[in-house]
Amino acid sequence: MKAPIFLPCTPTTTTTTGPTAVLLGLPKGGKQLLMEMGLWEGEPTLRVHECSACRAEKAATRQAITAFNRGGEGRQQVVDNTGQGEEDGGEDGDSGGSGAAGEAGKRRRCCVVRVLSELKAFREELNMVEKLFKAHGHLCIFLPKYHPELNAIERYWGYIKHLLRLHCEYSLRHMFQVLPGALSSVPARFIRAWHGAG
User: Does residue 96 have a pLDDT over 60?
Assistant: First the structure.
């Protein structure tokens, strides 16, 4: 096969003039995103970054989750506070004047982060793990205290550990010799059964 012949050429550069030339390659700001979506109402008080009230709200939520996960009195207190907030009609466990819906909805537009996080497109977006599960017709449930365990992988590694221990000579060199055989010796019917397909 004959090598192609390339003609000599000079590299071309794209030059842009005008006020937007300095913005090429830079990320858009939150204000610009809201303006393009038609959500910027020109309010001068809207913070571009996350406001202190939103940060405090997130910190309180994280503390409540941590207290719930620890169990005991902390869990009961979180359950009691949640029930009390629902009885009062407040959102996020707060009563009327504060929280995301307080002050007649003014808190909803406190910062760009809040406005973007309340958009339906952002709220309904699935993460990559959820998309993968949904694409294969499975349900992905994230439990509060645990990370999502993919049982087939755990069982596969457990089976390999079992095989390695059967042939163990207690040296790293020997383990590296036995490992490829252990990885390939797991029967396909086991893997199918672990994945629920067999």
Answer: no
Residues 6+ apart with CB under 8 A from 46: 109, 110, 111, 112, 115
List the structure tokens of 70: 């620890």
**Burial (0-12, 13-18, 19+ Cβ within 10 Å), 107:** buried
Spans of all domains in the chain: 52-127, 151-194
The structure's pTM equals 0.42
Name the one residue in this structure whose structure tokens are 């309340």. 118
pLDDT tens digits for 139-166? 777 765 555 556 677 788 889 999 999 9
Residue that the structure tokens 């497109």 belong to: 121
Q: How far is CA 95 from the centre of its chain?
A: 29
**Tokens 């819906």 identify what position?**
101
